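Q: What would this chain look like folded?
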Amino acid sequence: MTISKAPEISVGIVSGRGLTFTLNGYFTEGGHRFTGQWTALLKEGRIILSDGTKVIDAGAELTIVPEDIESNSFTLHSVTIGVAFHWQRNEDQTFSGDLRFIIENDRVTAVNILPVEEYLLSVISSEMSATSSAELLKAHAVISRSWLLAQMEKTARLKAGEEKYGTSFVTDTEITRWYDREDHNNFDVCADDHCQRYQGITRASTPVVRQAVRETSGEVLINDGMICDARYSKCCGGITELFENAWEPVSHPYLQKVIDNKNMPSGFNGDLTREANAVKWITGVPDAFCNTKDKETLKQVLNNYDQETNDFFRWKVTYPREELSILIREKTGIDFGLITDIEPFTRGTSGRIVRLRIKGERKTMIIGKELEIRKAFSKTHLYSSAFFVEKHVEKGELHFILHGAGWGHGVGLCQIGAAVMGASGYSYNGILMHYFTNATLKKIY
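A: My prediction, written as structure tokens:
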């Protein structure tokens, strides 16, 4: 598989009834020339642009292009990052490339169009720290590029009718959902954690980031002649998860169970699909690449808001029964009544729960997959679904204690584990081959 040059991609940044943006330099569209601060409003099914003195009816779609792509940029104000996660916040973000406005679900959406290699400069600095080691940055450039191009290929196959895609399995006794690509029909990817963090040139890339992207330009992971759908999460917790346990029921040879160590830690049974083994694993502190508290290494991976989370390898959350019952009802829309028990029904290779039985005084149901479980057990997102439940009575009230491991879905590359590997002298190829079995590196453009 070879592509003649790096493709352009479209990234959905932010949506709203009205968006405020500032053009840093001159942008053009048709006979119009734009600069300074503007608003884009949706009015009677049309996009209306205004700078306070001039009003332009843009219709259903508008793309404005910088006159000087090297020096001109645009700033989108009050962009929400970490949507529905515990670090959610708004910030102004600045981007290079073209700015397109489209209408989606009675809202205006701002879309950034730019070459994939320019996009990667921001992703690497947004997903991680721009001060990460060179080998870690190169590894992340390859998997971010692979994931993006694989998504674009899959979109093309879906549009051509070559594949079918579903995101849920629902019966009277079970709700299984997964969240992946169903929200993005009008652009290639979004800019938040739902896809890959992309925050434009707001996250300033350093010379080492530019070097990492340049030295790996066009390199992707390949399996059986296809670009790998390379995934990654913050911390696997010691063993990685299978793709099909987090998303659609498809097995990828390159997204298999990987022990995040040179060998299986002694004293543990690696079959975490068995409850007793999973409990011992989560209770214990196995030696793993991602089991680190080294602040300098963690700063390579974690941006300032990520560093607010410091108990990612092993963690604990406690809920009084009434509070948990209300939370689960609000998050699932199901009235279980007072929760009486929480039982892992199916565990994956990392110990993450794929299907969970919730028992209540009014209703009992199984929910899954991992993100659906995490959504149900937190006002934002639980760190992961790798947990077991301890029941404890305190002052006459039943409490549910969730003892957990890892941060994120655990599939593919473990970012903190990869940071430790990079700091320990592993090459980017060594890091990639550790996490992506049966994959090979290939330069396609």
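The first helix runs from residue 116 to 127.
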